[in-house]
Design goal:
Layout (H helix, E strand, L loop, with lengths): L2 E8 L2 E8 L4 H8 L18 E4 L2 E4 L12 E3 L12 H8 L9 H14 L5 H7 L11 H21 L2
Helix pairs in contact: 2-5
The protein binds FE2/S2 (inorganic) cluster (2 copies).
């Protein structure tokens, strides 16, 4: 088995990691870096529990080899909150009651944040489409969708206040 030294920026920190050729990004995050907020639901690209942002785009980290991420910028759920403040999507999902067992939540938060960065004022249909790859067995999705709507509206309020 070959090993590779890679440099990645994870949650704004530069990391140098030695990874075997067959290690996935999900395994590197969880096993090499102890970033266990990224969940392993299926290891097969079907549940979205392992979603992280890679260079700003959400993707299933179980479907990418760690060695392919050399030089990449990665954001995991651990990197969403600021020093003392949750991301608006984190606040909104708590307020909406969109967390039950919580297993899907990190992936949903990352997919939602990446989506809202691209589309700050989405329709409900666009939100549903953005989250189609994130499965949740508990909430029935309505509260999650409400949370994304709420986070979008908070951002509108925040930016309109900033321009006053
Ligand atoms: S663990 Fe990656 S999609 Fe399910
Ligand atoms: S809250 Fe349990 S799987 Fe989504």
């Amino acid at each position: 088995m070959a090993f590779h030294k890679i440099n990645v920026t994870i949650n704004n920190e530069l990391e140098q990691v030695v990874v075997p050729s067959n290690m996935t990004l999900m395994q590197m995050l969880r096993e090499s870096l102890a970033l266990t907020g990224t969940k392993n639901g299926c290891s097969a690209g079907e549940c979205g529990a392992c979603t992280v942002m890679l260079n700003g785009e959400p993707l299933n980290s179980c479907m990418v080899l760690a060695v392919e991420c050399d030089g990449a910028n990665i954001v995991t759920v651990e990197g969403l909150a600021g020093d003392k403040q949750l991301d608006p999507i984190q606040e909104a999902i708590i307020e909406a009651g969109g967390v039950q067992c919580g297993f899907c939540t990190p992936g949903i938060l990352i997919s939602s944040r990446a989506f809202l960065n691209r589309n700050p004022s989405p329709s409900e249909e666009e939100i549903r489409e953005a989250l189609v790859g994130n499965l949740c067995r508990c909430t029935g999705y309505m509260r999650i969708i409400e949370a994304v709507k709420k986070a979008a509206s908070l951002k509108v309020v925040a930016s309109s206040m900033a321009s006053d």
